[in-house]
Known about the structure:
It contains seven helices and no strands. The chain has 135 residues and is mainly α.
Amino acid sequence: MSNNISSKWQSYSPYILSLLRIFAALVFMQPGAMKLFGWPAPLPNGITISLFSQMGLAGVLEVFGGALLLVGLFTRPVAFILSGEMAVAYFQGHFSHGFWTVVNHGEPAVLLCFIWLFISAAGAGPWSIDAMRRK
Length: 135
């Protein structure tokens, strides 16, 4: 009986992959939207980000790259690029504050880096424009 449950649960893995991609993209887009648009909340102390800066580029990648991942279009290359962005964000913004992510507050950057790396290898899953284009 447990083997039946195991195989049934395993059969859902492509759909759970799509859910992981969709919800990670929604989480990922929020800091980008804050950087570019001050939404859903303004940046601390009312600072604004120049579009032609490293933070501006990060905002563009997060909003527009996140939107592509949300719908599952060009998933593998976009996820690979965004994984690299998160690695850069971690090493530039967090690693110098200590090795442990709980100390340097780098948990989101590390997790998203490896989620996007996994998605770049695994693909978008069945609920995606990439999957519709293959049919």
